[in-house]
Design goal:
single chain, alpha+beta, T-fold, 17 strands, globular, binds adenosine-5'-diphosphate, binds magnesium ion
């Protein structure tokens, strides 16, 4: 985690110091906080900058209290604690986020699944010791995984988990959602230029202080401190998922924290990382996790079909060194991976 934070600082150093001077006395307001189990960096420009940063921080803390399954009084803990088959009435926000998670599960054939929590726990990702669960333990847990058995009732704004032992965990979508909502809070405070980074979910508001699109660097998953490319972005969120972020080693094998819900093992789809850009921040987060599980071919097929989801664009970094960027990101793209042997190709519809 510390690791990740210093990369962020490096990214900010490169891309912010050049801009700050242009605003003269209007140096940006900024805050580094730790929330939702990750480091966050909030930066807002202009006279309302401090109010914007304060509003973003408050919004992130509010959502952590609502959505974290390790907070005993959260909405998700109420759902998980209700017992099999018992519906729990949820606030509209939590309900809508679960519904979006469900849509992403459907669109990705179950690659994204918010009920993967019992298997995450078996690997020790939710506190406790990291461990490799024996195959028979995983086989016994897999029947508890299945987003279609998280039943949502829109009329009653209620949800229930069909089977005993099922658990929901929004770890793959909540940070992006929070980054997006924090972005709205920043805008409501009167800020027109800001960047919020919540554990790899980067939301940009407006253009950068120079009045041109924000330059957001995508990390090279294989070379810490280096970058694959720089994207030019305005009013959207980019979320990145990769096996290089959280992992442990056992008997010389590396195990990361993004699981294939079908096998219970870390996803091994031939991708090193996936970045998703969308105006829908929660969707960007969920899809970065999902596409990492799907692999390049299925991720691009989803991009081409749209999956009935809000529009999104992709940067796929494959293990063979090919970086595929979808055409919506072509404008202003700077590819930086050549020195490490990467090649860049554009995917078209
Ligand atoms: P991070 O949150 O570490 O930045 P991701 O956005 O990819 O990375 O989310 C990973 C988290 O999502 C895991 O920690 C876990 O809580 C959850 N998760 C893991 N595998 C899946 C999956 N296949 N579908 C949905 N959520 C998942
Ligand atoms: Mg995600």
């Amino acid at each position: 985690m510390k690791h990740r934070f210093s990369f962020l600082l490096a990214a900010f150093f490169v891309f912010f110091t050049g801009c700050a001077g242009l605003k003269g006395e209007d140096a940006p307001a900024s805050a580094q906080i730790f929330a939702m189990d990750t480091a966050a960096e909030l930066t807002a420009y202009g006279p309302e900058g401090q109010a914007g940063v304060d509003a973003a921080r408050a919004e992130i803390n509010r959502l952590e209290a609502l959505l974290s399954r390790t907070r005993p009084d959260s909405a998700i803990s109420a759902l998980n604690g209700a017992g099999a088959g018992n519906p729990v009435t949820l606030d509209g926000e939590t309900f809508a986020l679960l519904a979006l998670a469900q849509d992403v599960s459907e669109a990705t054939g179950g690659a994204f699944d918010v009920t993967v929590a019992p298997v995450m726990d078996a690997w020790g990702w939710t506190g406790g010791e990291r461990r490799v669960p024996p195959p028979e333990e995983l086989a016994a847990l897999l029947p508890l995984v299945g987003a279609q058995d998280l039943e949502l009732n829109p009329e009653a704004s209620s949800a229930r988990l069909a089977r005993a032992g099922m658990k929901a965990d929004l770890g793959g979508i909540a940070k992006g959602y929070a980054a997006g909502r924090a972005g709205e809070a920043v805008r409501a405070a009167g800020v027109t230029c800001a960047m919020l980074d919540l554990g790899g979910n980067i939301t940009v508001i407006g253009n950068n202080p120079e009045g041109i699109p924000w330059r957001v660097a995508v990390k090279d998953p294989a070379h810490p401190g280096d970058y694959l490319c720089v994207l030019s972005l305005t009013d959207c969120t980019v979320s990145t998922s990769g096996g290089y972020e959280r992992f442990f080693e056992a008997d010389g094998v590396t195990y990361h924290h993004i699981l294939d819900p079908k096998t219970g093992y870390p996803a091994a789809s031939g991708l090193r990382s996936v970045s998703v850009v969308s105006e829908n921040a929660a969707l960007a987060d969920a899809l970065s996790t999902a596409c990492f599980v799907l692999g390049a071919e299925d991720a691009l097929a989803l991009w081409r079909s749209g999956g009935g989801l809000d529009p999104f664009e992709l940067v796929l970094c494959r293990e063979d060194g090919v970086v595929t960027v979808t055409e919506g990101l072509e404008e202003g793209l700077r590819f930086l991976g050549g020195d490490h042997g990467y090649t860049c190709e554009t995917a078209r519809r």
